[in-house]
Amino acid sequence: MLRLPEDFIFGGATAAYQAEGATKKGGKGPVAWDEFLEKQGRFLADPASDFYHQYPQDIALCKKFGVNGLRLSIAWSRIFPDGTGEVNQEGVDFYHKVFAECEKEGVLPFVTLHHFDTPKRLFDQGDFLNRDTMDAFVSYAQFCFEEFTEVRYWSTFNEIYPVASNQYLLGVFPPGIRFNLGSTIQCLHNMMVAHARVINIFKDNKYPGEIGVVHSLEPKYPASDSEEDKHAAFLDDALSVRFLLDATYLGHYSDETMQALKEICEANDASYTFLDEDFTEMEKASHRNDYLGINHYQCHFVKAYDGESQVHHNGTGDKGTSVYKIKGIGERVYKEGVPRTDWDWIIYPEGMYDLLLRIQKEYPHYNKIYITENGMGYKDEFEDGIIMDKPRIDYLRVYLNELSKAISAGVNVKGYFLWSLMDVFSWSNGYNKRYGLFYVDFETQKRYPKESAYWYKLVSETKTII
Ligand code: BGP
Predict the structure, then answer these.
(1) CA nearest ligand 1 atom 9, residue
(2) How many domains, the chain?
């Protein structure tokens, strides 16, 4: 059986909008999701897991089950309801109380400043396509560094690629725009610049603690050995993985990334603007990231595709319904013999190993890594208070094994945060896609430990992947 280091963090991950509920309480300002979900009419982010009121019980559960790190995010619009300007003291107090509870239970908080929830006013003005939002984000971040001095681990953004692609390429996040590659690239770049500006402020002001960014990194493999498929995988990977790593650790885009952008933009008649001053900030920040957070659930097999863009998002758990074909990039396909979840997420743990070794090789000054999300969405069955989630345990085991192998191969990974601590609301899937160690009855808000919670506790206590 493989092991993990003695000082390893066995964490659980959450996000404000997916866990807190109370979207209109405590002086919180609106976010674009509120209206988007209401119009869609499938599900809402209330009550979610009511973390706003239940946090003492959730943090106590962390302690009880060997979860010694809690990843959570601050809802920007609880602090600045309008995005800028007046501070909502009730929101500030709420997070102080959460951090105090973490301290009391010996659980280390890892705090993300932005997890898909830009305040509505700024969102409606173009979100990160508008440079005013970048300025507002920098001010909000600085406010948090000054205010929440009890926090030692900060992340600027959660998942810049899914923000850009879900908002402007796939249309599953507000504002629901599809196939706009220009906006996708612009959003990626602007958020990376905002990240760099925040890193530089954090370091210039010598705020205590550590800071990094959380990227969703899903590497692409060619579906076959053909040159065409290899090229399609290269393009898809360049846009969704290499772009972010280049921006984070080089402070500019490598020739490979620029070549891919050129091809993708030509095929889609798309354009973007990168300013010289952006690269000054990015280069300055590129050696100042204390860590990289990686969210990794799956990878993709890609084959060449030369038709018009077509996508179908499987947000219902009807296996086999996903369609992902993007003009000028490629088509993501399933591979014989490679399992996938009901939501068509490919289970390929070797992908995590490959990714970690690639970062070590290509960006050697990455410093250290935390796996900030990994887990399995599953239709958990609740029977007499018992939830036997064996497929989830199997999933976690194979991924943790690959992680352990990567550590043995010299990659500096210091912790792992399982998504999710308890069942939470899922952005484009609602409430039947459960990830938690703790089952949540969303009506009563009662928590029930799943089989996986007992398994994780044992792994955390013994540092052995059983
Ligand atoms: C990541 C997000 C999380 C969470 C998770 C699972 O992309 O950071 O917020 O939602 O994925 O995704 P989903 O809920 O779509 O299954």
Answers:
(1) 15
(2) 1
